[in-house]
Amino acid sequence: MPVLNISNFNIVTACLGGFALVFGLISYVVKEHCYMGEALPALLFGLIFNKAKWVIPEEYGNVREITLEFSRLVLGIQLVLAGVQLPAKYLVKEWRSFFFLLVPVMTTMWVVTALIIWLIFPNLRYLDALIIGSCVTPTDPVLSNSVVKGKFAEKYVSESLRNIISAESGANDGFGYPFLFLALYIDRYSGTKIAKEWIVETILYEILLSVAYGAVIGYLGQELLGYAKKFNFVDDESFLVFVFALGLFILGTAGMIGTDDLLAAFIAGNAFTWNDWFREETKDDTLQPTLDLMLNFAIFLWVGVVMPWGQFNQPHLNLPVWRFVLCGICVLVFRRLPAMLVFYKFIPTIKNIKEALFAGFFGPIGIGAIFYLHTALNKLDEFVEENEHGEAHTYDPHWLITVMYPLVYFLILSSVVVHGITIPVSMLGKQLPTTLSRTMTMTRSFSRSRSASRDRTPRDPEGHVKIDAISNPTDLRQNIHVVDESGTTDDSQDTYTRPAPEIGFVIPDRRGDQV
Hints:
This protein is mainly α. The chain is built from 20 helices and 2 strands.
């Protein structure tokens, strides 16, 4: 007798495959006509799977650990791809733009976001708000693809702006470490210990070492692949997936030595295509976008499943939903836009205030925020353990964790929704007046045409067509009035023949009444 095997693995694969099938059937309409990416639909489907109890993540193991490593995997591959897709020597050519985006703009984003959180949520120190703000400061490379790829981007966004948005989202996802760990070290240490730990461990070891490591591995990978291709040692399939293997290798090795694996992945991708050879060879390839799409499906479905929906409204903890909503609105409006408007004149790739407004608004919060959230939570757990063992650190981070976890997820949700529907709504608003105008013009022209035709037809007092004489009793000739788009009537004669057995008969017209 057959036995059902409703295991967690079977359920998860069925849900992922089912969503991919449904979305795939309408993907062209969603992306090219609605200008919407896959993130928002995947997130909503994840919510449905969660509420229907089809996917119960708590049964799979440590949800926080799974989410951290899953986000790290997706980001690592995405950042390698982001680096590979940039033009040759892009980081050197646009060093000034990168400096201002990664230092003054990012620092302003961090400080402003922390200020908003500190003002809205009770019983938080400003230092606590800085820790939370550091998680949502980097822009997300996954969500940024919705404004740098596709028909909308090619038509409305300049190539230079697309490149800098993509490059910034790749670089600052790895550059978020200094902001997070500066706040954590200030919370943990005092005096010169803060500077020592932050400069030596974070700046020198995690940031600079990751840049050097990524550059070396990326360059060596490009040279080895070039020789393999030259002597026909590599087949087409392995050639195309080489960059994915490079991303996995960087993640694993950089993670083992404890450096910033995300930044190393981005630098490796850019070094890998330093001479533009690989990018030109694969510019028409569909394998990379396909694998990229499946990763996006999986991660945003997972985010929808694990998102703490029930923690967005906790009145008993003085965390009602209005605080989250207000914070989401303020962060999306003030987190990035003011900084971009202030510094855009120093950024050569942003040429005018219109591009500054666009780049300032589209700085989405996504998978990078999840990675930094769980990295910070692991560090705060260490602080809790140190407190329990009676070490010098005395501050209890439990309240910070209570606020931080749902807030970061809510800001991710806000960004996915707002940035996901902004372009479709704006395009609808742009096209709606034109559509309505054309409809009204056609309606008025049609009405005038019918009125003119009716008025010029001879009628008797009762409204019937009056026919005094017809040379051929089998034919009836009427005027056909042609109306052009401007509403002008062309009174050229044409013949409309209808059989008339006898002169003087009442003939019904196409309107259904009698004429």
